[in-house]
Every structure is written in structure tokens, then in C-alpha cells.
Amino acid sequence: MPLLEALELELCDEMEGPALVAELTEFLRIHPTIRSVKLAGSAHTFMGLFIITPTRQLCPLLEDLHIGPCPSFDKAVLLEVVASRAGLMEASSSQDIIPLEDVFLHQCPLTCKATISLLDTFVNLVIIEGQIAPDNSNDFELDSEHGSPP
Predict the structure, then answer these.
(1) I need a surface site. Which of 39, 80, 136, 148 has the fewest CB within 10 A?
(2) Inside any domain, residue 142
(3) Does residue 20 form part of some domain?
(4) Environment class of residue 58 by beta-carbon count within 10 Å: exposed (0-12), middle (13-18) or buried (19+)?
């Protein structure tokens, strides 16, 4: 699989732990050609692996991120993934990393309009059979000083 371009992970809650994170990290490291990732079930817990940092730059060609269906997901982590891959953070200054273009939310839990609007300024956001929370919901915005969620 040296030229793997798409990856779909679907996990159940019992399949979590440090060993699995280490194995997935190594798998992503040796497959830098991945352009599309879908995280379903509890696989969304691995979303943080796609945050670009000075020491971790997995899937540098990632263009499309699909999340769901899932019972819940961490919106702060999603915003950090998007920010790091949209050139907002210093860690994403590597020339070899292309910007994330599309985020698809498939049957995901409530997301407020402010978060949707914020994500939509950096990527093409597609919500498939999702629900939008009222504007007064307890959501967050990107911290403009640091380029990441508070």
C-alpha cells in the first residue's frame, strides 16, 4: 500500500488505548500519500492525530476529512485540525503540507451556527444529515490571538 490515498476508520468504544494510537500514528507516518480520511464511530477520538505540529506532520497531503456518523466529537479538536492545516498556526509552516480543503460532517451531533460559520471560512464545510444548534448554544469560537480554540 505505498500509494494509499484514502483511509476509512470505524471503531467501537472498546477499541481505544495508547497502543492503538501508537499503531495508527505509525501507519499514518508510513503512508504520507493519504488524501482523504473518514473517521466513523468512535474513530473521531483519533482526530487529534491530524493536527499539524512541529514534531508531528501526519498525512501532509490530506485534502478531505470526513467525520461520522458518530455519537459525538470534540469540536475544539476539529477546529485545531482545520486551523493547523489552513496555515493559521506556526506549526503548519512546512512547505510540504497542503491545506485541508473539505470537511464533511456525516450524521454528527448538534453544531452551532457560529462554529459552522467559522469552519466554513477556512474549508468547504459539508453537513450531511446533521443538526444545527440554536445560536445560543454553548459552543466556542476560534481564539484569534492564538489561532486555536480556547
Answers:
(1) 136
(2) no
(3) yes
(4) buried
CA pair distance 35, 63, nearest whole angstrom: 5
What lies within 8 Å, CB to CB, of 108 at 6+ separation is 67, 68, 69, 70, 73, 127, 130
If you ran DSSP here, which 8-state letter would residue 48 be given? G
Half-sphere exposure of 45 toward its Cβ, with a 13 Å CA cutoff?
16
Q: What is the pLDDT of residue 96?
A: 80
- Does residue 99 sit within a domain? yes
- DSSP-derived secondary structure for 130-142: --EE-TTSS----
**Interval 61-82: pLDDT, tens:** 999 999 988 777 788 899 999 9
Q: Alpha-carbon distance 25 to 8, whole Å?
A: 15
Domain for residue 29, yes or no?
yes
